[in-house]
Description:
13 helices; disordered N terminus
Amino acid sequence: MMRKGFGSLAFSLSVRKRAFSTSTSPSLSPLDDAGAAGSLKSMNLFSAINNALHIALDSDPRAYVFGEDVSFGGVFRCTTGLADRFGKNRVFNTPLCEQGIVGFGIGLAAMDNRAIAEIQFADYIYPAFDQIVNEAAKFRYRSGNQFNCGASIVGLTSGGEVQTYDPPPNNAPISYGLTIRAPYGAVGHGGHYHSQSPESFFCHVPGIKVVIPRSPKQAKGLLLSCIRDPNPVVFFEPKWLYRLAVEEVPEHDYMVPLSEAEVIRHGTDITLVGWGAQLAVMEQACIDAEKEGISCELIDLRTLLPWDKETVEASVRKTGRLLVSHEAPVTGGFGAEISASMVERCFLRLEAPVGRICGLDTPFPLVFEPFYMPTKNKILDAIKSTVNY
Length: 389
């Protein structure tokens, strides 16, 4: 197999019983205020990921980064400079064995460490599926809350800065967690082994969280939240945006809350829901629809498991219409779960069937990738047909 190529809100610190995996994250500083406490720097997405990993390793001496080729920066350079700064005992290569990478991470986290594992491409996460689904996700539940591979204590100062505790105050029990990073999605020339979007497989599994960022600023804050979350997290990174997406990112330590969707464009006629790289495509469709008099509300789900049903429901109740778009094949994709949930919650408010513009039910193609992808024009056509239903 070829694998190369390519605000400042404070909350009180409390020691609590290790929560079940569907528990939400603690209150964190809003991203809109994230730049207030420090300077901004222009970063692309892989640089923002790298910056988050630097902060995670620097703020916690028991954090480790490991995976295939990570010691010299990895295929996408997300781990560049980490081994030089923190040493090869904390940033190190593993054998080409995804099951072993995740299994090692589970054991490392279970021994009160913060394990940050990298799967080189999401397409190759399947050998680790058993470890993620049958071990990491069930570790706490099957032991009756006696053991786990994720629990943490993190606080914010009154100025919005992150404060970690090592050792914890008053000798309180503390452990850390497991985060599995994986580049996912189309890249323009990846073919069927370097382009897949496997997020829906993991959204069927109670006991883990699934998070996908859309931009550099979001990626940094969400990744730090995942690393410090008391549950195992699968963090998919849209590799199409590693170098393409650039924005001003706060240089200081901040976190973006998990399981909170964000309305990134307000509208009144139709609700669009997506995540990751697809948000940029959907936003362009919204702009074109506005030129034809259609007001679109665009929501970035950010966390797919557990997802923010309330924000989506509020929007659908307002607009009366819903369109979901993702790169993964349409059948069994997470868009189906969103659609079913909104039909259950908003049936009497819907003015049209829920639309899904997704990848096709085929292996991911190479030369036919433009036909497979849920493009702006496909989304725009669906917006118009849904509004005119």
